[in-house]
């Protein structure tokens, strides 16, 4: 096999592409240091059972020395059944730290919680709704401050855990005419006992100067979450979503049911609302042909990458992290544009990004071509002829270049190994 005529040109293209792609940014760890700024206010809102507003904060994680003018943003939203948790919980810190080393800006946000002594079916619904309002407020805050934080507002992603996912999905799909009755004013019984205030519209919370901004996002990674009613998903709710859920989850059922079964944080006999898990969400999304992924973990329980309350399990966490990175890579227009800039109209690669294998197509179906796969240093990792399906499972995550020679013509494509 003779590639000598094309190697010099190919290596030039390789080096130019790697510079343009910021040496694997978004698909591999490229920044050695990050900067964390803590306790930045993004909203003020009253608790679900009080009138006085409280300030809500986020922590910002950024790549140190980043010169990119506009960066994709990931907003992480912790879990805790709407009664516990904060933006510094271990998995939120782990995701934020890793994602910022990959080149994303990450905002780990707080949202309103319910004191456990106040928990009941009504307040659980109000808590989920208030969480959705706070997620919406955070999105609009960052769109209103895009210049300050150098955010590409078309590339904002959400990543939730449990209650954080529930809040994010309702922010994504619920319209004002779909609000639960529990979110409206109720004067209550005798002397106002049992009453509650009107929480307002889904997207009405937060600082008033950001109310005009859209709460739309580029995608959402939804870990073990659920919705109060799948009919809030309409055909025009077309935000891409990546669902992760274990089939043995008894906290937020994979199918449907009451959260926590018969015991909520040790309180038995407590009535909570029914939730529809990822299985029924997937069916609704599939019915409307909405772009989504469903990753089912057979026999896995709720939030299976944490043991106890604070011990992260590296292998399980990395599995979920790689799914999130791959999902965002396929919808990150910086990566997509780089792929499109290099590929010609007559060569295609599927899937891309990929984790196990790729298949490429050429303009002519003849069995008369050769291929080589290069890494970022120009080393040949794979070579062969007349074979269009390549096993890349053994390669490290990153960016690779595929060169194919057919009938004297060269074709190049960038491959992203997730």
Structural class: alpha/beta
Helical region count? 8
What general form does the structure show? elongated
Strand fraction? 25-35%
The CATH class name of the largest domain reads Alpha Beta
Description:
With 418 residues, the chain is an alpha/beta fold. It has 2 domains: 4-20 and 344-417, Immunoglobulins (Immunoglobulin-like, Sandwich), CATH 2.60.40.10; 34-331, Alpha/Beta hydrolase fold, catalytic domain (Rossmann fold). It is 25% helix and 28% strand. The protein has 8 helices and 21 strands. The protein has helices at 4-20, 90-101, 121-144, 146-149, 163-173, 278-288, 314-329, 333-342; strands at residues 34-46, 53-63, 71-77, 105-109, 151-161, 219-223, 241-246, 256-257, 263-264, 267-268, 275-276, 292-297, 306-307, 311-312, 348-350, 357-361, 369-374, 380-385, 389-391, 398-406, 409-417. The strands form 6 sheets. The protein has an 8-stranded mixed β-sheet, sandwiched between helices. Strands 18-17-20-21 form a 4-stranded antiparallel β-sheet. Strand 13 and strand 14 (311-312) form a beta hairpin.
Would you spell out the secondary-structure blueprint of this structure?
Elements: H1 4-20, E1 34-46, E2 53-63, E3 71-77, H2 90-101, E4 105-109, H3 121-144, H4 146-149, E5 151-161, H5 163-173, E6 219-223, E7 241-246, E8 256-257, E9 263-264, E10 267-268, E11 275-276, H6 278-288, E12 292-297, E13 306-307, E14 311-312, H7 314-329, H8 333-342, E15 348-350, E16 357-361, E17 369-374, E18 380-385, E19 389-391, E20 398-406, E21 409-417
Parallel strand pairs: 3-4, 3-5, 5-6, 6-7, 7-12
Antiparallel strand pairs: 1-2, 2-4, 8-11, 9-10, 13-14, 15-16, 16-19, 17-18, 17-20, 20-21
Helix pairs in contact: 3-5
